[in-house]
Design goal:
Elements: E1 3-5, H1 9-12, H2 17-26, E2 34-38, E3 43-51, E4 58-66, E5 75-79, H3 85-98, E6 102-107, H4 118-131, E7 139-145, H5 146-150, E8 158-162, E9 171-172, H6 173-176, E10 183-187, H7 195-203, E11 207-210, H8 218-241
Parallel strand pairs: 1-2, 5-6, 5-10, 6-7, 8-10, 8-11, 9-11
Antiparallel strand pairs: 2-3, 3-4
Helix pairs in contact: 3-4, 3-8
Length: about 240
């Protein structure tokens, strides 16, 4: 079943204009049809259309349920966006499909890109959430200054930063990550982090890690690290069951 997104569906009983248009104009659904709506907060609603309108489709809620995440822990991915925004859009889509709780775009000293279109990014996140049949939309912070991000309180999360140069010894992410724990992964810009940024990260408790023996592009490193953490957690859970 195709999913629709309405963040306040339980209060408004109305699909937003974008989803209303898709529902009525594209899919040609009409009054009486049953649809599935998610609110991006982990809730799924089975609804019956009461007024099929291309701008504001009205519904009644038949039932609702809470959909638990399929992954373990809270995962935050902070990445400096590339000059080619298409590569970042691809990354966001795949990260949502795999499973992510929070996405941050970093503004670093050597960043090629200093701004983004938040509205465009949100559309990509929503689309990926619906396509991958999830009910939770990851938090998105937009552009955040790198040093401001470092100063956040991440609680008990493990904090990792990947970079290319060699000021500090780099550890293997696969060996350093403790299965089942929350994690923050930081990936730098195309020109890498500056020495001062790396020092600030280390001073704030981030571990310098490597993602293998080859140099990876920004989006590849981000997806590689996220996939590794999911794989570690899934493998650990599988062997607990056995």
């Amino acid at each position: 079943m195709i999913r629709f997104y309405a963040p306040d569906i339980d209060k408004t009983l109305t699909l937003p204009e974008s989803d209303s248009g898709h529902c009525c104009r594209v899919l040609r659904m009409t009054t009486g049809d049953i649809i599935e709506v998610v609110d991006g907060k982990g809730n799924s609603f089975q609804c019956r259309i009461t007024d099929a309108h291309h701008k504001h489709t009205k519904v009644d809620i038949i039932s609702n349920s809470v959909e638990a995440k399929h992954w373990i822990g809270r995962l935050t991915l902070a990445v400096a966006p590339t000059k080619n925004i298409d590569r970042m859009e691809w990354l966001l889509e795949k990260a949502v499909e795999i499973g992510i709780d929070r996405i941050v775009f970093l503004k670093c000293e050597r960043s090629e890109r200093k701004d983004i279109k938040n509205e465009r990014i949100l559309k990509i996140l929503v689309s990926a959430m619906k396509q991958s049949m999830k009910a939770s939309l990851p938090e998105f912070d937009g552009m955040v200054d790198f040093n401001k991000f470092l100063s956040e309180d991440f609680g008990t999360s493990q904090k990792f930063i990947g970079y290319c140069s060699s000021e500090y010894p780099k550890l293997q992410l696969l060996k350093e990550y403790n299965p089942g724990t929350d994690a923050v992964i930081v990936i730098g810009p195309e020109g890498d982090f500056s020495p001062n940024e790396i020092k600030n990260a280390v001073d704030n408790g981030f571990k310098c890690v490597t993602f293998g023996n080859t140099r990876l592009r920004t989006e590849t490193a981000a997806l590689y690290s996220l996939t590794n953490i999911h794989s570690i957690n899934e493998y650990t859970e599988l062997h607990k069951i056995k």
